[in-house]
Amino acid sequence: MMPNDFPPWEVVYQQTQRWISAGLFEAMVHALRAVLRQEATGESVELAYVDRSYTGEEASADAKGIRLEVVKHPGAKKGFVLLPRRCVVERSFAWASRFRRLAKDYELLPQTVAGLHFVAFACLFLHRAITVLGPRP
């Protein structure tokens, strides 16, 4: 379902795979996220919420002055318990589901699905940057 003025879908797909493999969209999302956070806070991020299964390097977060807070389930719970900042995760899933390519299981490789998530969030962050920062000359 590509527009007629685009090349054949195979060519577009191969080029997208090259960009995903090179980490282009991931780098774009990280750069846009940094710009949007800087604009929103006016300063650097000091606190980040992580899942208890977080396996990233805490040293890199400490070096940047970011304190990591692990979000855990309460010991004894009955029924639904809302975790702190859970709405951010749910909102992100809802945004990603708006992209038709992510709404269905079209892809065979998990790297492609992850890359297409970066493409979707690059689009979302670009839109957000335009609305927050305004168009630049």
Describe the structure.
The protein is mainly alpha-helical and 137 residues long. Among the domains are: 45-74, no CATH class; 85-137. 57% of the residues lie in helices and 7% in strands. It contains six helices and two strands. The chain has helices spanning 9-22, 24-41, 58-63, 86-97, 100-103, 110-133, and strands at residues 47-51, 67-71. It has a two-stranded parallel sheet with strand order 1-2. Strand 1, helix 3 (58-63) and strand 2 form a beta-alpha-beta unit. Helix 2 runs parallel beside helix 6. The longest helix is centred in the last third of the chain and has 24 residues, at 110-133. The protein starts with 8 loop residues before the first helix and ends with a helix. The relative contact order is 0.14.
Quick summary:
The protein is mainly alpha-helical and 137 residues long.
**Anisotropy-based shape:** globular
Stretches where pLDDT is under 50 for at least 5 consecutive residues are: none
Oligomer: single chain
Structural class: mainly alpha
Strand order of the largest sheet: 1-2
Tell me the Rg in angstroms. 18 Å
Distance between the termini: 33 Å
SSE sequence, one letter per element? HHEHEHHH
Average pLDDT reading: 79
Q: If helices are DSSP runs of H or I spanning 4 or more residues, what is the number of helices? A: 6
Provide the β-strand percentage band: 5-15%
| Biggest sheet record | 2 strands, parallel
List the main descriptive attributes of the protein structure presented here:
single chain; 137 residues; mainly alpha; two-stranded parallel sheet; 6 helices; 2 strands; 57% helix; globular
